[in-house]
Write a structure and sequence with these properties.
Layout lengths: L1 H28 L5 H9 L3 H4 L5 E3 L6 E2 L13 E5 L4 E3 L2 H11 L6 E5 L5 H10 L4 E5 L3 H10 L6 E4 L11 E6 L8 H6 E11 L6 E7 L6 E10 L10 H10 L9 E3 L8 E4 L4 E3 L4
Parallel strand pairs: 5-6, 5-8, 6-7, 8-9
Antiparallel strand pairs: 1-2, 1-3, 3-4, 9-10, 10-11, 11-12, 12-14, 13-14
Length: about 290
């Protein structure tokens, strides 16, 4: 009995050491000096969200590799983990999400909506960042994944998993909407749900297009919203927000200077500063 207890204690100490190293590793890879984000990645256990071993892991642009066994050390790397390899559904690369979450400037007690929850790993990271006085609404349209997320997050009383589309018209008001599925446009439902000075971080990247992670901030008033691309990004497509023609034009637009985008305009009057024009919205290289 004592030997078993000692073995379990040693395993817990090793896992804690892995997580501390992992958190520092991914924040270094993200060039992020944010103790709150580092703490969240250190404290949230990745194992329950990955499912039973062996795991299929990878770098996104290359084929997955299967781990030889269930040693937690294989999960605490800067690698994505397949949830459904055939459908290309993964727990995304940690350093990329660390970078994007750092750019969101999340504060304690804020309300966050996550669209595309998967098994709930980054939902748990968001829940840690907002704290118990905050709130996270997690939307996952795939009922099997939503059930996994609900089970994984059942002890997080300030998290609510909803097995429905995150493009629905009844979204709660939020300080941040964090989207983990690629879209051909900023969904009007997301923009309407933001509180003043609230942020929307989403991949303007229809399925099959390497687009960009766009950070938008709602102003107190007006139709010109501060916006910028934080990085390039590619995601599985968000159901209901795909457009083949827009995807083709976006692919062309990203061959230009995407770093110059400075604002989102919600009108039908693109001018010479237009970087990309959608229906009733366009991105400008001029600040809001």
């Amino acid at each position: 009995m004592m030997r078993r207890a000692r073995r379990l204690a040693d395993q817990a100490n090793r896992t804690e050491k892995y997580r501390a190293f992992y958190a520092k590793l991914i924040c270094s890879a993200a060039k992020l000096d944010d103790p709150n984000v580092e703490e969240a990645f250190r404290c949230v256990d990745r194992l329950p969200f990955a499912g039973p071993p062996p795991w299929w892991v990878g770098l996104g642009t290359r084929p997955h590799v299967v781990t030889p066994d269930g040693d937690p050390a294989f999960l605490y790397q800067d690698l994505l983990v397949a949830l459904d390899a055939q459908r290309n559904i993964n727990i995304g690369q940690p350093s990329a999400h660390a970078f994007w979450l750092g750019a969101c400037k999340i504060k304690r007690a804020q309300t966050v909506i996550q669209v595309g929850t998967g098994s709930g790993y980054y939902t748990a990271i968001l829940a840690h960042l907002v704290g118990e006085n905050g709130r996270v609404y997690a939307y996952e349209i795939d009922e099997t994944l939503a059930a996994r997320a609900r089970e994984n997050l059942k002890d997080q009383k300030h998290v609510q998993v909803r097995a429905q589309s995150g493009v629905a018209a009844d979204l709660p008001r939020a300080d941040l909407i964090y989207v983990c599925a690629g879209a051909a446009r900023p969904c009007r439902t997301w923009l309407d749900a933001l509180r003043p000075r609230g942020r929307l971080m989403f991949p303007l990247a229809p399925e099959g297009v390497l687009g960009g992670m766009l950070l938008i901030r709602r102003p107190e008033q007006g139709f010109s919203w501060p916006a910028r691309f934080v990085s390039r990004a590619g995601f599985i497509g968000c159901v209901g927000l795909q457009d083949e023609e827009a995807g083709r034009r976006l692919d062309e637009a990203f061959s230009k200077s995407w770093e110059d985008v400075r604002s989102l305009r919600l009108d039908n009057s693109p001018d010479g500063s237009c970087w990309f024009a959608g229906g009733g919205w366009w991105l400008s290289t001029v600040s809001a």
